[in-house]
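Entry for the shared binder. Reason: the reviewer on the internal report wants the predicted structure included alongside the sequence.
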Amino acid sequence: MTAAHGGRSDSPTGRHPAERRVLRRAFGTFATGVTVVTVGGEQPHGMTANSFTSVSLDPPLVLVCVDKSTVMHTCLDAAPVFGISVLAAGHAEVARYFADSRRPVGPGEFTGIAAVPGERTGAPMIADALAWFECELWRRYDGGDHTIVVGRLLSYTQPATDQALLFHNGRLGTTGPDREVPT
């Protein structure tokens, strides 16, 4: 039996392209929310991320995992602060845009994107997001081909109350009352 079928493999990390795709699909069965991570300054940048979670209430910490080969990884090396916008159901195009490596880089990247500068960081925060988190870098941890970036909250806001944008099995979806599990 192979790792793709629940068994053991000499390559559990999926070094072969076919194994990597199977592993990615298996990881994708875990439904997540969708965020846009941003840095401000002269060269603002954004990146769609679904690997975001709260870590601690005291001190207030969150984490996001960033691929080491991305522009955002380089930006976070230079920026002491960053923002995270939790996307609402109506933000599917925003999520796709910030996931597209062909988008412009630098100030032009936010042309046509409804965003406001974070009060504490200046990082662009996506308008009408469910929540905004402004963070200062707290710690970084090696996570294989990603870096686990832990941020200490400087501020947070809940500017909108709406359904959430979700990512599951490689597709975007939303939460909603018809999707609730009865208690």
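Summary line for the report: The chain has one domain: 34-168.
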